[in-house]
Design a protein that fits this description.
Order of helices and strands: HEEEEEEEEEEEE
Strand content: over 45%
Helix content: 10-25%
CATH superfamily: Calycin beta-barrel core domain
Mean pLDDT: 86
CATH class: Mainly Beta
Low-confidence stretches: 1-25
Number of strands: 12
Shape: globular
Oligomer: single chain
Distance between the termini: 56 Å
Largest sheet: 10 strands, antiparallel, barrel
CATH topology: Lipocalin
Radius of gyration: 20 Å
Number of domains: 1
Number of helices: 1
């Protein structure tokens, strides 16, 4: 049983490595660039806490190798919120890795796979995961969700025939923000 697990883990790992290595040099396709609008839904637990209009700009920078990442929305609870960042590409990184530069010394790696950017990062006691998916119809789906790291739950598998078991750590997702952006310019 343990040998079967090892073979499956090796096979899955090989597939992941090969799929990442075969991505090749990547840039953000020019048809993704533009100005988008949508309505963001913000959930706190299972409750829809707020819906608000959002504008997102993804444009090639005039100088340098990168793109704007400008997300603007007006929240009744928090006021006007502007996320004025840049997406940059560094030659020292693998072809599928981009950086979200928050322009304050913080860089969040963004991993491009199958027309999606994936990120996972922590701020204090918060774990955050995000996806930005570029869809064939020209829309962009964006979602970011968070959990408290200190509220982790642990569980363990039953031992296999050789007495081996594994531990799992899970986290309650307590907020999510998601929006389907439509290109307007």
């Amino acid at each position: 049983m343990n040998q079967v697990k090892s073979i499956l883990i090796s096979l899955i790992s090989s597939i992941l490595v090969l799929s990442c290595a075969s991505v090749g040099a990547q840039e953000i396709p020019s048809d993704w660039c533009g100005i988008y609008e949508g309505e963001m839904s913000i959930y706190q637990g299972p409750t829809l806490a707020e819906k608000l209009p959002v504008r997102f700009s993804l444009l090639a920078l005039e100088e340098g190798d990168g793109w704007t990442y400008l997300m603007e929305y007006q929240s009744e609870k928090y006021g006007n919120i502007v996320k004025d960042y840049q997406i940059v590409k560094q030659d020292s990184l693998p072809a599928h890795v981009f950086l979200l530069d928050e322009k304050d010394g913080i860089f969040i790696p963004m991993y491009m796979m199958d027309n999606c950017f994936y990120s996972r990062f922590e701020v204090g006691d918060m774990g955050l995961s995000s996806i930005m998916q570029f869809r064939p119809d020209g829309d962009i789906f964006f979602e970011i969700f968070s959990n408290k790291i200190s509220s982790a739950d642990q569980s363990s598998s039953n031992p296999d025939d050789e007495g081996h078991s594994y531990e799992l750590t899970s986290y309650e997702t307590f907020t999510t923000q998601k929006v389907l952006f439509k290109k307007v310019e």
